[in-house]
What we know:
The chain has about 130 residues and is α+β, with helices and mostly antiparallel strands. It has helices at about 15-30, 35-55, 100-105, and strands spanning about 5-10, 65-70, 70-80, 110-115, 120-129. It has one domain (about 5-129): Histidine kinase-like ATPase, C-terminal domain (Heat Shock Protein 90), CATH 3.30.565. A hairpin with a 2-residue loop joins strand 2 and strand 3 (about 70-80). The chain is globular, with a radius of gyration of 14 Å. It starts with a strand and ends with a strand.
Amino acid sequence: MDTVNLSAAPARSGNSAADARERARAFLDGLLPPVTSEAAGTVLLVVSELVTNALRHAGGTWTLELTAHPHGIEVAVHDPSPQPPRPRTPDLNGRTGGFGWPLVTRLAHTTAITPRPSGGKTVSALLPR
């Protein structure tokens, strides 16, 4: 299978995570061979978590890039903050989160945080296909 790539421009509305999931779903629906429903659910969850982290902790702007490889789907979110994601103690009362980054690292084969030459960073996760 050839590598397939899709980049999406930043969304600026209050539904940015929903917009990212919609774009990811369209990307996944166009793949041949198709991904399993479990793999698609994992990709959508990781997209949602990484975009939500960019919205909450990195200035609210993001760019989503999805790449299909023969054995995985790479999710990359670019944002303007140089600060890497950090594990936090999860808030069991639902006020401050803390579940997203551990969830992403647990679901992914690999994760990477790469500084961008223009500033900010890219947070990426390679997920099972």
